[in-house]
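Sequence in, structure out. Go.
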Amino acid sequence: MTVPRLLLCLSLSMLCISSKPTEKKDRVHHDPQLSDKVHDDAQNFDYDHDAFLGADEAKTFDQLTPEESKERLGKIVSKIDEDKDGFVTVEELKDWIKFAQKRWIYEDVERQWKGHDLNEDGLISWEEYKNATYGYIL
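Output:
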């Protein structure tokens, strides 16, 4: 091997070693979190309650006695068991959680819509939007 070639290989090796690696981009689409609470089953089950019931329904369950909570959960489980075989499969549970989350989103959109539709005509004009969002700006 000649000296120029050896120097070229050596300089290319040094360049590769000293160059900064490119930033790794996450190409996986992650599902949104099912709750804004911390998911730590050793401490509490608030995250699971939000995911399973939806945030608003979970708040209601927090105020029930254990007996009432058990009775209501029994009714919900019968809704989750789509094929009515007496067992809840992983797929049925996933479908229920997706349903509960979508229901919460749709209810939130409906609440927001009503808050912006000030004249209750089913439409939101730019003026209504500005007034509901920013207040009456002169």
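Check: Residues 36-80 form one domain. The chain has two domains: 36-80, 86-137.
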